[in-house]
Amino acid sequence: MIQSYKDLEVYKRSFNMAMEIFWITRKFPKEEVYSLTSQITRSSRSISANISEGWAKRNFEAVFKQHLTHSLGSCAETETWLDFALECKYIDTSLHVQLTKENDEIGKMLNKLHQNWTSYGK
């Protein structure tokens, strides 16, 4: 039984991906600190943050689903920033593929949670 948002696999994976992105961005050039580095860390963190905030409000279906929708938006934004990081040559193709694949899987999990949210307990 899921008793906390921390028990959700999608939360765990999105949190871990955000931390991986955080550590990767430490190697980005200093001139990107207030641009790409800030944007990609914010969007990746927003995925798990919206899951936890939505979970706290899950008794209100529309509010919970809205937070999951925001998480999905953050997934899309994170993918765009990953594309920029690749094009700027801050990450290599294999890392881009790995992170994009994980981000896509998280998006699929969010969609499934959005569709089946009542199975996770109120």
Keywords:
122 residues; mainly alpha; de novo design (two linked rop proteins); 75% helix; elongated
Explain how this protein is built.
The protein is an all-alpha fold. It has a single domain, classed as Up-down Bundle (de novo design (two linked rop proteins)). Helix content is 75%, strand content 0%. α1 runs antiparallel to α2 and α2 runs antiparallel to α3.
> Low-confidence segments, ≥5 residues, pLDDT <50?
none
Count of domains: 1
Tell me the β content: under 5%
Secondary-structure element series: HHHH
Helix-strand layout with pairing:
Layout: H1 9-25, H2 33-56, H3 61-87, H4 93-115
Helix pairs in contact: 1-2, 1-4, 2-3, 3-4
Question: Brief overview, please?
Answer:
This protein is mostly helical and 122 residues long. The protein has a single domain (5-23, 32-52, 63-120), classed as 23S rRNA-intervening sequence (de novo design (two linked rop proteins), Up-down Bundle). Helices cover 75% and strands 0% of the residues.
